[in-house]
Amino acid sequence: QLQLQESGPGLVKPSETLSLTCTVSGGSISSSSYYWGWIRQPPGKGLEWIGSIYYSGSTYYNPSLKSRVTISVDTSKNQFSLKLSSVTAADTAVYYCARQRGGIFGVVIRYYFDYWGQGTLVTVSS
Amino acid sequence: SYVLTQPPSVSVAPGQTARITCGGNNIGSKSVHWYQQKPGQAPVLVVYDDSDRPSGIPERFSGSNSGNTATLTISRVEAGDEADYYCQVWDSSSDHPGVFGGGTKLTVL
After folding, report:
1. Do the beta carbons of residue B40 and residue B3 sit within 8 Å?
2. Sign of the dihedral defined by the CA atoms of residues B105, A3, B30, B78, in that order
3. What whole-number distance in Å separates Cα of residue B58 and Cα of residue A79?
4. How far is B89 from chain A (nearest CA, A)?
5. Distance between CA B58 and CA B38 in Å, rounded?
6. pLDDT for residue B95
7. pLDDT at residue A106 in the model
8. CB-based contacts of A58, cutoff 8 Å, min separation 6
9. I need a surface site. Which of A8, A79, B55, B90 has the fewest CB within 10 A?
10. Residues of B with CB below 8 A from A46's CB?
């Protein structure tokens, strides 16, 4: 059974960089069938896609966060990571990592998230 | 960027049918996916590709998608179905491909 687990500091100071790692077990992050994504959820609010990465390192990001986000992958450790710079209180959220599957079928793109980590709350505060 | 619109809340009595809508411009041309999220838990995929169910999801959960509206239908609603539900699409035509709806709180009366 595939499992994903987020790890990283639960408290980050304003203007600093938020760093999280997602460890994948029960499957290989190097599978050609999947992307790997980060999604966040501010307290009491909805889900927001942050960005996704392929095992080769190819990435795409939410434009509203793109200038501050870096997602990377370490296939040797079966992990992928998120860095979000210059954080403010608005970045306080539960951060989830997830497996993204699907693909392009004709003119329809069918990507969705079928396995999720349990999520980790990151609070931005001094 | 592409916008998905969901009603903030839907209420239904046990045993009845709940329908949660997800509106978007020509959403019928896209593939829609649905997630269930209970308090304090991670989202769970309940419907993908408009109407397919992952293994382990009851047949009571079904989906449809046409025109400008996609719908998640939950038949014979149970107390355990009370949760937030989110729709999601991938929009290649915008610079913001990963899009979630704002979520709908399903209350079982």
Report:
1. no
2. negative
3. 32
4. 7
5. 16
6. 66
7. 81
8. none
9. B55
10. 86, 100-103
Identity (one letter) of the amino acid at B86?
Y
Q: What is the DSSP letter of A29?
A: T
Q: Which residues pair with B35 in a beta bridge?
A: B45, B86
Check pLDDT > 90 for residue B57: yes
pLDDT value at B78 more than 70:
yes
Q: Which two tokens stand for residue A60?
A: 């795409």
Closest chain B residue to A6 measured between Cα atoms? B42
How close B99 gets to chain A, by Cα (Å)? 7
What's the angle, vertex CA B51, arms to CA B19 and CA B53, rounded to 5? 100
What is the phi/psi pair of residue A100, to 5°? -110, 120
Q: What pLDDT, in 10s, does the model give residues B8-21?
A: 999 999 999 999 99
